[in-house]
TrEMBL record:
SUPFAM superfamilies: Terpenoid synthases (SSF48576). It holds the Pfam family polyprenyl_synt. This is Polyprenyl synthetase family protein. The keyword ATP-binding does not apply.
Amino acid sequence: MVLRLAEHEFNELLQYDVAREGSVAVRLRDGLWEPAANFLSRPSKEFRARLVDFGWEWIGAQGRAPEPLRAALEALHAGSLIIDDIEDDAPDRRGQPALHVAYGVPMALNCGNWLYFAALRMLRRLPLAVEAEIDLQHRFLDTLAMCHAGQALDISVRLSEIPKNDILPLVTTTTRWKTGALMALAASAAAVALRASKERVIVLHDFGLAFGTTLQMLDDLATLTKRTHRATRYEDLQLDRVTWPWAWLAETVDAETFDGLRARAARVAAGQDDPAELAETLSTLVATTGRAAARERLAAEREKLRALGEGASAVVAAFEVEIERLLACYD
């Protein structure tokens, strides 16, 4: 789906080949489309496309959500993953070498950025009223800006440098901007495209935000509880990152215990201590609290969906089954 539509966007670039002899096309395909196709062809859970479908079905629209709308969300997400892997120097993604490992940083960086614009261009393929298209474009741009702001917080703030009382608000804001904003856009995109009521757009937006926050909580927790097999499992600890487990600890343990754990984290970040041992300790302290917090956050938004479900209650129920399947991956 996203691979096919992204290739359409790439092929449209070729009309600007002033040489008209094919040499530019060949080089552009090698330098841009090959890495893009490599990444987009890798297995993906397509959570964001599924959220678009959910929003489409929930507001009572006929058929399936339009492919360009679904693909635009997946292309935007793919671009963000490529850039994120460069910033973290991650070795792998979706079961293969990260794109900057396979093609080098310059080509990967350019490819990731191009996918942002390819996503925006895909929206032009939708048969929308002018007002709806402008609204969607604005929301895409706002989301991109928020994601970059969230990423800035994630990669610049160090656990060892931030006051204990600032950890929860920092992690909450970082998650809302970096992860939640894109999920919120995916959940509400169909309602915006079809000019649904403001109330429905807000409810779907808030549900997507809660869903994204829940996933980030569980993903942060999975890195401690052996639920992830990526080579970057201890990346957050080794990079001195501020994550949800530290936010939960800041709220639940006494200052002396917290300071002792943070001192151990500083030694891990400096390469002087074993991250596996610290991960095991943190997991023991926050696993139960973390899973409960993640589920409670999502439960409140599910109730709002039920309240406005009307004739779409079956759609809500079907999506709840998918949510439980997803959450089970982290339990």
